[in-house]
Amino acid sequence: xADKAQLQESIKAQGEVVRKLKEAKAxxxxxxxxxxKLLELKAQLGTDDGKQMFVLKTPKGTRDYNPKQMxxxxxxxxxxxxxxxxxxxxxxxxxxFELKETLTGKYGEDSKLIYDLKDxxxxxxxxxxxxxVPFARYLAMNKISxxxxxxxxxxxxxxxxxxxxxxxxxxxxxxFDIAGQYDPMIPDAECIKVVHEIxxxxxxxxxxxxxxxxxxxDGMFAVCGVPDDKFRAICSTVDKLxxxxxxxxxxxxxxxxxxxxxxxxxxxxxxxxHGGFDLAEKLLQDPQLSQNKHAxxxxxxxxxxxxxxxxxxxxxxVIFDLSLARGLDYYTGVIYEAxxxxxxxxxxxxxxxxxxxxxxxxxxDGLVGMFDPKGRKVPCVGVSVGIERVFSILEQKxxxxxxxxxxTETQVLVASAQKNLLEERLKLTSELWDAGIKAEVLYKKNPxxxxxxxxxxxxxxxxxxxxxxxxxxxxxxxxRNVATREEVDVSRVTLVxxxxxxxxxS
Amino acid sequence: xADKAQLQESIKAQGEVVRKLKEAKAxxxxxxxxxxKLLELKAQLGTDDGKQMFVLKTPKGTRDYNPKQMxxxxxxxxxxxxxxxxxxxxxxxxxxFELKETLTGKYGEDSKLIYDLKDxxxxxxxxxxxxxVPFARYLAMNKISxxxxxxxxxxxxxxxxxxxxxxxxxxxxxxFDIAGQYDPMIPDAECIKVVHEIxxxxxxxxxxxxxxxxxxxDGMFAVCGVPDDKFRAICSTVDKLxxxxxxxxxxxxxxxxxxxxxxxxxxxxxxxxHGGFDLAEKLLQDPQLSQNKHAxxxxxxxxxxxxxxxxxxxxxxVIFDLSLARGLDYYTGVIYEAxxxxxxxxxxxxxxxxxxxxxxxxxxDGLVGMFDPKGRKVPCVGVSVGIERVFSILEQKxxxxxxxxxxTETQVLVASAQKNLLEERLKLTSELWDAGIKAEVLYKKNPxxxxxxxxxxxxxxxxxxxxxxxxxxxxxxxxRNVATREEVDVSRVTLVxxxxxxxxxS
Lengths: 506, 506
Known about the structure:
Chains A, B: Pfam families: HGTP_anticodon, tRNA-synt_His, WHEP-TRS. The structure is a homodimer. The first copy, chain A, is an alpha+beta fold.
């Protein structure tokens, strides 16, 4: 721990920063962060009585889930898992960390965002950055050549968090992947169908799924005159088109990446194109593109894809978009990304505005081979649903609707209006538990009936089983409906049955 | 990466180590580990064609879960979560890492087993060691003074793994805790009831739940003449009694910890005692122990506890055992631990043999106060089910019984005996998905009927929906029962209904 003088110095310095930031009208986020740092330093100074104080927070870019958020999360996961199971997927799990070298060379420029563990002796480890690379490692390690699996787990990225937008450093991915050598584009089409089903069922509003193909991008770069060794760099610049204007992207290509302006302009013409089956047909007529082997393969497969999507009746939401690039190094074929859109109410033009990506994926035929001692390839295609943004939207919806979300499933509270009945309450509660009834009892010797009823109101417990001397003598229980306040005497023998009858079956 | 010469040097050195270990007749484990290191170094050298090779493994002490293991895991979690919900618990989640200082000073001697993250700029972070300290941090941070919550998540300990016994470095904990100021021992008794219900439902064989109290231990140490500053050290030595003999434990007390032999002998008399309500009564008559304030409180509460356990009808499995200590620093009152036992078949004495701890917990009234700026206390009691050992046992059982575990829930495979019907198969499959039916289709243009039926046999899919030219013309589907090989023509309009009717409702 730093000493007091040092910390006070730091606080002064931090205070300066805050003032300067305010003067410079810096973004609100920056100020908030600097103020947080200031408060942390203050906390480290401790209270006046010398007691060391803890900084009470979760690490930057992470959060706790409270019971209400967990209830929403459970609902979302159930929807997603049901969809994955409907498509016949099994599930696996892998450790939260991998050998550092397992992740090396898989993520291109993003590798700097990987969390490493401290070297405490033994192996060098890193937290997983996604679920795709661990999946490929799993396939190679166990010599599995075909599987359809889902995996729902947290991944870790030392990115700049923007938590109000649902961008965290610890976040869930829900992955669905199909590994195996199959006829072209059938599993690829199923992945897109899966995304379509999930986004429809979650009722988040309208969405579109953009598709493109790495081979079409590569062919396009080639015919536009991009040198081979610049493909990946230019690709990751194109990937910024969803957030930046064409002018900005062109400037980066020409200025930073050293591309000839004419080449950039030719790319600019292609990346403006979007459509469906027809666009693929049209580009197959493009005299230059159709001469490129990669582009030809990609465009031919794109036609297959749209034919299958037609059979799945989902082409109204899918757009073949030549500007879609996706940054990760390991994609080799089709790529896709789902975005939520909102009708632009401000303008009468009804232009659609993207409010962010919620799922993405593609084909990665080379990744498993990178792990296999003999370089044996296993073709894979998959999709990852990024549900943090989904949680944010559903949380806001729940708050706006003022709908009461129950965080427990308790069916009945065992209560009493009289004193000295703790043991009788515990005995009855235990009987209910043993009969599979979800039951609670207050942990007080002599709670007031009012506070017992209040507990039901607050937590949504629908029934109260009330006992008193009289009820015990008669072998009955007074069963009260919290909402209607109706009470009936029920024989102790039939109590379980009566509670089950009155509980809404979920 | 080290260069070839360096690595070859290391391999030679490692080879030396292996030889020496063998000579010294070192434990098998050590040899296995050294050989693994050797193989890793060899792998780093790469193949002869110069291709860099990966070490294909998960980090030490961790494992993947394959689909069969996941099916068992899902079943165990469902049992445990149902029990937690039956007792009215909500759930929360916290990040996998915490600020390093959040974990500091909570685990006593075990702190050395905490995984730290590398300092990559920003906060210093550690992986969570249990779910209890993050829970206490959560309560203090959100000023929550009462809650009943469960939390199921992975925790991390750099311990010596013994994976065949289910001891891993990454493992699940299933925690159930009750926070709040209540009348004595009521929530404590409920925690023990929860453990009893879970172990009964999991059908792992017979078990016992040992209980003791930190205050009784402290009182016992005091009357035995243990100096105050040695309480924690002696306590963690007593904790070893389940694995070591009394002689070994006494040697550590006297030799390592510097306790007077007479004091050790007096402890030895107490820790041999076990019983129930009666033992608590008897010890309350002990002229020395009953004079000690802490012991008196602990013994009085122990009587309360057994009274409640009597009402819950579970005293036959609960033992008041003065040798139970539990290592963690934060316990302040009752402590308990559940062990699986097997009747000793070898000896006719029918002595019970413990095969390991599967759950443990206790009361920790001071932990939340350590996080609260004003030291405001929130009394807590909880239990943690350590299910890795449970998984191991159930996996072995499943293997022994040769019972086929399904890893998917697919109800029907859409198939064809004829060529050129891929599009019709996809169309029908999509219709079934949209109707909520779990359906699969092979990703081949023209798969053989036999290989389609084989897929059903292998994965346990009970139904096949077969289409051909004839069926398409007539608007029917041939629905085949895989087990009985019966086939019936079903109108396409009623297909969904027919599949639902024939599917076993789960």
